[in-house]
Amino acid sequence: MISAVIMAGGKGERFWPKSRKKQPKQLLKLTNDDKTMIQLTVDRIEKLVDSNNIFIATVEDYAHPINSQLPQVPKQNILVEPMGKNTAACIGLAAVHIAKKDPDAVMLVLPSDHLIKNNEKFIDVLKTAKEVAEQGENLVTIGIRPQYPETGYGYINFEEKIDSINGNDVLKVNRFVEKPDKETAKKYLESGKYLWNSGMFAWKVSTILKCMEMYMPELYKGLMKIKEAIGTDKEEEVLCSEYSKFESISIDYGIMEKAESIFVIPGDFGWDDVGSWTSLERINNPDKEGNVVKGDNVITLDTKKCIIEGSNKLIATIGVEDLVIVDTDDATLICSKEKSQQVKNLLKKIKIMKKENYL
Predict the structure, then answer these.
(1) Which residues does 288 contact at the CB level (< 8 Å), separation at least 6?
(2) Residue 22: its pLDDT value, please?
(3) Single pTM value for the model
(4) With pLDDT > 70 as the criterion, what percentage of the chain qualifies?
(5) Where in the numbering of this chain does the Nucleotidyl transferase domain appear (predicted)?
(6) For 75-89, 130-144, 150-164, which range has the lowest pLDDT when averaged over its residues?
(7) What residues form DSSP beta bridges with 115?
(8) Which residue in 101, 218, 219, 316 has the most C-beta neighbors within 10 A?
(9) Could you tell me the CA-to-CA distances from 176 to 5, 92, 171, 245, 306 in Å, in that order?
């Protein structure tokens, strides 16, 4: 069996004020496809994985809207975390649910809010990742060939080519490295030995659980208790009790930086993590003035290289450049594109000012 786990518990704070507590980035329509990010993700993976074997890991606030947006995914496959504990716990929870169905299943792990432009190439790379995962106790990740010295992504340093499957290179991973500064990112790009870390993985369920037992024993013990309780009247009680004890740590820190037999497959399929408002310039076609405008009630005059997202109110701009302007019913964001990554800091200030109703 091949299964897919789509991680959909993130808040997408850098897309405020569109992204809110009850409607995070993965539930928004950010492209011209008239589908939300999570709907596009599921559409894509359904070409490889039966919808009955697609699992969504999320939190309570998002479970109902996800169920509404994805009627083809069985309701019991929407796994609700009692609290956010980062990706190691999230992946572990999904792994024990899949193991109950098929302990030898291959498990694909995907973010819910990334853009893929070439779906055929993407599926082809995943098929290769599945083959490598099946060949042994291998952990496989998908790396993206860097196009520029990005400082907002983690990187994967690879060694020699091990194999070529279906025309896709299989490379041995040397190490995972954290987000670099600009100069370091330039060196990574020039070396040709680094890939962007996409946060996409493939492994057998038995392999990832064995790694958790070895490198994260406390997490593994708790997961085994949760596994025992699945389908019983104590499932929710045990889940909440054990989850509260889990360390909040990413799968990269908890497993990938410690384990052996890690391989990376480079992917050239038009990937974008759609990480902030400026991403819209990459995934939508700017007009002749370089503006990306969404909404029917926007009028621009002498306006260049701006990102404008309107709702009901008229937005009118004159003589501005390189701005992000986002209007909703109760909040408006205006910032320079250069500072768009600081939206998360703005939300911290909103919390300090006790204006939580805007979050």
Answers:
(1) none
(2) 83
(3) 0.91
(4) 100
(5) 4-287
(6) 150-164
(7) 272
(8) 219
(9) 22, 20, 13, 27, 35
Separation CA 29–CA 284 (nearest Å): 12
Q: Quick: pLDDT tens for 262-278.
A: 999 999 999 998 888 99
Q: Are strands 307-309 and 155-165 parallel, antiparallel or unpaired?
A: unpaired
138 closest CA partner among 207, 86, 79, 74: 207
Contacts of 241 (CB under 8 A, 6+ apart): none
Domain ranges of the chain: 2-272, 277-358
pLDDT band at 5 (very low <50, low <70, confident <90, very high): very high
Asked whether the predicted pLDDT for residue 312 surpasses 90, the reply is: no
- Reply yes or no on whether the pLDDT at 32 is more than 80: no
- Return the ∠ at Cα 232 (arms to 85 and 247), rounded to 5°: 15
Cβ within 8 Å of residue 345, ≥6 positions away? none
Right CATH number for 2-272 from 2.60.120.200, 1.25.40.10, 3.90.226.10, 3.90.550.10? 3.90.550.10
Radius of gyration of the chain (CA): 21
Model pLDDT, residue 282: 86
Residue given tokens 């057998």 in the structure block: 204
Beta strand 307-309 pairing with 292-294:
parallel
Three-state secondary structure along 12-77? CHHHCCCCECCECHHHCCCCCCCCCHHHHHHHHHCCCCCHHHEEEEEEHHHHHHHHHHCCCCCHHH
Mean pLDDT across 44-51: 96
Question: Strand 54-59 to strand 2-7: parallel, antiparallel, or no bridges (unpaired)?
Answer: parallel
DSSP string computed for 212-272? HHHH-HHHHHHHHHHHHHTTSTTHHHHHHHHHTTS----HIIIIITT-SSEEEEEE-S-EE
Look at the block and give the residue holding tokens 């299989």.
Answer: 170
